[in-house]
Structure prediction request, 494 residues.
Amino acid sequence: MIVAVVAAFVLSQAPAPAPAPAATVSVTSAWIRLPPPASMTAAGFFTLSNTGSADRKLLSASDDVAKTTELHTHLMEGGVMKMRAVAAVDVKAGASVAFGPGGLHVMFIDLVKPLADKQVVKLHLRFDDGSVVDVDAVVSREAPTTAPKK
Amino acid sequence: MKEWALKIVLVLVVFMAATYVGTPAKVLPMTTSDCDLGVGSCVQSYPGEPHILDLRLARTDGAALPLATEIPLAVSARVVGGNGHNPVVSFTGSDMGMKVTTVKLLPVGGGNFTATVTLPVCVADQMRWVASLDVDVDGDLHAARFGFVTKRSGLAGAAGIAGTSGPSGSGTSTVTPLPPTPVDFALHTKAGPLTLASQKGKVVVVTFGYTFCPDVCPTSLAATAAALKQLTAEERSGVVPVFVSVDPARDSLDHVADYVAFFDSAYVGASGSDVEVKAAADVFGVFYERHLEPGQDPSKALIDHTTRSYLVDKDGRLTAAVAHGAPAADVDAAIRTLLAGGSL
Prediction:
């Protein structure tokens, strides 16, 4: 937990943009797994923390690096890993939701051009109250510092 | 027509009918069983006339362990009283009404055949299964069906949204030794054909996946690459990492080669026709299935697949399954043992 908090703090230093005033969800630890240059896809992760008193839903993510960007999750069913698009991700009031490898992720489909290591990708996350949170996701070979908390 | 000519024609017809591949299988009555794979091995014998067919299923992850979401099984069959050829075992979850996986058994002598398979277990507490052994015995196709069950207490291994890394089911050993079983496939790479037989003398790490996969497959490939980097140069020269694309429709051999080179220059990217890939997956008990939402662009199809990697020893025998997310140190320890000619 401490490590996660420190990680969130350290990472929040790099991405400068402040959340839109109306937003009650903060986004931290945003990163994108560096895909092979030949890859058409990539996966991005972050942690959503709802500091408000109302439940929120993340509805979509947009960016300028892929033609299509979707919210996905993984289901492990009977030993078989299944990746599925989800319409929204619930972030209950006062709760946090960690996106991470093997679980929830933003899937970038049809990359406009190959992503580069340490490239910063601007993500725009839209919530059900109309708020949009902009976050800088860093392209990296591995999860920065630590894996998302459980 | 002269009588002798008629006889020849008759003999020919009978001969052709007997050898015709499409001859309906002789379906033997099903032997039901309450044998619980969760508790131990299940052995069934069908003393069909004039042959005896045995089928043995043994868990390779420890019989006493609670069931995870996948059960690694050693499958062995025995044919007595005739020459058995091309035995295939299909597993059907009778509660699901679907054929889950099919595995081709390889001969190991004395009428014995073996293979390994991973049985995906549904979230249900108890499942009834039918293992169907189809085998050609002296030209006659026999279908022997055996029933068994898998039970578990509670839903500890039930599927859920994996919010963290390391979504392996049981949380037990990450490198699971399997009874050494000769395996092979016939696939293709950018550089030419690839068989496991041609890699004898080396330890082969085999991973199945597809390059459209943004998360799980890169994680597996990166994990193997990280494990290899911790080996000495001499050790590395004895290891061949192979990535098999189960998505030949989208993954050209050039594309697969480019994709895997990113993780390690030693990586071999392989694929083949649908039939070749399916055959290779079956040998390892790997399950995969294209998933397309209604109205979805087929070029964006996702593929459901098992996530384990496999270790093939220097004699071309499948010897271990490596769980997704296995620590590099565990993988290296197993590889070093196999390089030294030891068993896991």
